[in-house]
Design brief:
This protein is α+β, with helices and mostly antiparallel strands. 27% of the residues lie in helices and 30% in strands. It has a single domain, classed as 2-Layer Sandwich (60s Ribosomal Protein L30, Chain: A).
């Protein structure tokens, strides 16, 4: 039968909450990750997200084809973070780069990946609201420093500037399709950015689309 879709693959344990859907354009099952989420696949799924000042790391074992993507909001928490985000540790941790990177890498290794085979691609960190502090740059500096400390090279990246990004990642092949979004019409993304800035300011006091690029 033409255009028949395969059965939806079962997600790995711990990822049942992630939204998944059939992508007819790419003819594959896909997982859509939101801020503070990450997803790992061993079954050739696509992983999709939209980034403003947030950063996503796309990491895979290039030999085994096991990989995933995270989506973190801020570099690290401090003692006051729970006052804005809430007190559930599991809900808090993966919002932050230090935890998001650890969780993603450890899950890939747990599924059979090897550190020496890891391929890393980095996206996001745009300055979405010009009048506010540049959270995106802080996220970029964090992830570069983290990867350097872990002796993990960056295979490719597209970070910074003043636009949002839609990122589609294919862990089995390592391919990334990325679209820059210069005219953000989705009010949800703008509101999300404003909340990030509120969080950063709190912590500081306490302490049009272009074409698709392939990576």
């Amino acid at each position: 039968m033409l255009n028949s879709r395969p059965p939806e693959p079962k997600p790995l344990p711990g990822f049942e909450h992630v939204v998944r859907y059939w992508d007819g354009v790419h003819n594959t099952w896909a997982a859509k990750i939101l801020p503070g989420e990450f997803y790992v696949s061993t079954q050739g799924e696509m992983i999709a997200t939209v980034l403003g000042s947030c950063v996503s790391a796309c990491i895979r074992d290039k030999v085994m084809g096991i990989g995933g993507m995270n989506h973190f909001m801020l570099p690290e928490p401090n003692d006051h973070s729970s006052e804005l985000w809430g007190t559930n540790p599991a809900a808090q941790e993966s919002r932050y780069g230090n935890w998001a990177m650890e969780y993603l890498i450890n899950e890939i290794l747990k599924r059979g990946g090897r550190r020496e085979n890891l391929e890393v691609k980095i996206f996001g960190g745009g300055q979405m609201i010009a009048s506010m502090s540049d959270i995106g740059q802080r996220n970029i500096l964090f992830v570069y420093s983290y990867l350097q400390s872990e002796n993990l090279a960056i295979a490719s990246s597209d970070v910074g500037d003043v636009y949002a990004r839609k990122v589609l990642y294919f862990p089995d092949t390592g391919a990334v399709k990325m679209r820059r979004i210069s005219n953000v019409k989705n009010d949800t993304l703008v509101k999300r950015e404003t909340k990030y800035h509120e969080q950063v300011n709190f912590e500081d006091k306490a302490q049009g689309d272009s074409g698709i690029d392939l990576f």
